[in-house]
Amino acid sequence: ATINLNAANYRVDAAAATQTVTFTGAVVLGNNVAIDTDGALADNNLTFTGTINADDAAAQNRTLAVTAGAGTVTFGGDIGTTQALADLDVTAATIQLNGSTVQVDDQGGN
């Protein structure tokens, strides 16, 4: 199943101990998306098991920003192969890119 992220902000940072947030399946960005798992007591990990694409890269120019602090962010699939992202910003202690392709077309100097 496809996971459509249409809101601008997602916060998963209230845990007292480190947890892992997992998106299982293909993710489509329907907005410029920011995901924050950087908690006050513990930083959570974030895992994407499938691909990540913009909903319409030519018209929408979607961005993805992930903040995980001391956590780990894992990208299990390709990023932007169907619809490229305009920007990808990830802040984490460990970033794992396990897909074969990352396509970001308009990096804006990042």
In short:
The chain contains 1 helix and 9 strands; from the N terminus they run βββββββαββ.
What report would you give on this structure?
The chain is mainly β and about 110 residues long. Helix content is about 5%, strand content about 45%. The protein is built from one helix and nine strands. The strands form two sheets. Strands 2, 3, 5, 6, 8 and 9 form a six-stranded parallel beta sheet that branches. The protein has a three-stranded parallel beta sheet with strand order 1-4-7, with no helix packed on it. The protein is globular, with a radius of gyration of 13 Å. The relative contact order is 0.21.
Key terms:
110 residues, mainly beta, 6-stranded parallel sheet, 3-stranded parallel sheet, 45% strand
Q: Give the beta-strand count.
A: 9
Compute the average pLDDT: 89
Largest sheet entry: 6 strands, parallel
Low-pLDDT stretches are none
| Through-space gap between termini | 32 Å
| Rg, nearest Å | 13 Å
Query: Strand percentage, roughly?
Result: over 45%
Q: In sequence order, what are the helices and strands, one letter per element?
A: EEEEEEEHEE
Q: Assign the structural class, choosing from mainly alpha, mainly beta, alpha/beta, alpha+beta, or little secondary structure.
A: mainly beta
Shape: globular
SS field, number of helical segments = 1
Task: Classify the helix fraction into a percent range.
Answer: under 10%
Write the layout of secondary structure elements.
Layout: E1 2-5, E2 9-11, E3 20-23, E4 26-29, E5 33-36, E6 45-48, E7 52-54, H1 57-60, E8 63-75, E9 87-97
Parallel strand pairs: 1-4, 2-5, 3-6, 4-7, 5-8, 6-8, 8-9
